[in-house]
Amino acid sequence: MLNNNKIVADSKENFYKMLIYRIESYLSAEKDVLANLCNVAALLYDNLEDINWAGFYLMKDGELVLGPFGGKAACTRIKIGKGVCGSAARDRRTYIVPNVHEFEGHIACDSASNSEIVVPIIKDDVLYGVLDIDSPKFNRFDDIDKIFLEKLVKKLNKYLDWKEVTRI
């Protein structure tokens, strides 16, 4: 039985280390990509503090399409270059947005969101999607979040065959 207890740690770094360890235990026990993405989204949503959405947008037919997530219903499709997710996908870099209301072209799926971090999912130079996390707090995300969420995406790349859930 896998552990579903809320993660408690003495520092943000140790929290992320324990979270990634727990996520890897799920990834290593299951081959199905969609099942794994569902569990990763759930673990992020249940364990990260001060967030209101955590999940994935996956590349399908040249745009980002909503994938597994935790939170309120979300925008279904995002064009590359549009909003924070589309910009991170286009630029192939992580975006930390302290105030989404100041981000030109921000797509407001949930009016409660005030800050956001988006990490592109790139494997073998192919963009497969993005990991997107929103918060109702301004300035919620920092370089520690960036470092560890990028490490999480590397773990996903190690275990998942993205071609199973995307149509590039």
From TrEMBL:
GO terms for molecular function: L-methionine-(R)-S-oxide reductase activity. One of its GO terms (cellular component) is cytosol. SUPFAM superfamilies: GAF domain-like. It comes from the Bacteria. Pfam families: GAF_2. Residues 42-153 form the GAF domain. Belongs to the free Met sulfoxide reductase family. This is GAF domain-containing protein.
